[in-house]
Design brief:
TIM Barrel; eight-stranded parallel β-barrel; globular; binds (3S,4R)-3-hydroxy-2-oxopiperidin-4-yl beta-D-xylopyranoside; polysaccharide degradation; endo-1,4-beta-xylanase activity
Length: 319
Amino acid sequence: PDNLRELARKLGVRMGSAVNATALAEEADYRRVLNREFDHVTAENAMKWESVEPQRGVYAWEDADAVVRNALRNRQQVRGHTLVWHNQIPAWLTEGVADGSIDAAELRKILRDHIMTEVGRYRGKIRAWDVVNEVVDDDGNLRQSIWLTHLGPGYIADAFRWAHQADPRAKLYINDYNLEWNTNKINTTLGIVKDLKAQRVPIHGIGFQGHLGIQYDYPGDFADIMRQFTDLGLEAAITEADVRMVLPVTPEKLATQADYYKRMLSTCAANKRCAEFTVWGYTDRHSWVPDWFEGEGAACIMDENLTPKPAYHALLTVR
Ligand code: XIL
């Protein structure tokens, strides 16, 4: 294969990227490479609650619409990210809950409304939704959040049921980080999935974010872990792959990074139920890593000039 779209066809795995809506609007080279290489996209921020409803009842769909429009024009499928999360929630909501002006009953209505509105808007245009994101913490407890505190653990089942009502054909995912190796998180998440299935809640997929770093050992059990979830009948996806490093960049580090990317994609390619491999930004020009991990960067498969790095070439060799 000469590019990732061709690779996707050969492997039977959709190849995706997170999309920076500003770059999509303003950078022709960014747009060109995105549309040449990928058959799947996720809005990096544009579909998050704080982006789509910055003031109560005031919606801002422009960026999200632009990502979806570009995708449809370029025969790309879309992952919706994300409906229920503890981060990037609008201030009016957090503040209203904190000052008591929004009580639990109202919060539940607000959540239902948010899910129905957003999923409904893109009904038929989103292949898969990250319905709940990062709902388990690293100790394996349900994450403390306004959702858990005020609505109780049933908010997870509710969210899936509402999303299914709003778009019955979308694949509905639970998505998390460190799920490639953290035993506490894995076991709790397996429990949640089994529990939802026992209650006949519409859950269809498990998303492994895939945020790795070369300063840590590669998570060698990942393939087995993915299998434990897909054996429950779930589809799987690697939803936010990147492989960061402590700067400066060296040829050795780039080679290790390439190996980590290749092993992640191979894990997906080897599992019949793994449907999608998405990178969390394809270029070091637009990556969350330097802003979030001090001293780290260069996590993507292309550099700032959109030149493919060893990781890109390594992905093309996956069979
Ligand atoms: C990140 C974005 O990349 C940043 O631009 C933003 O400032 C913070 O969120 N897990 C997720 C993603 O599910 O939504 C996060 O995206 C990265 C970690």
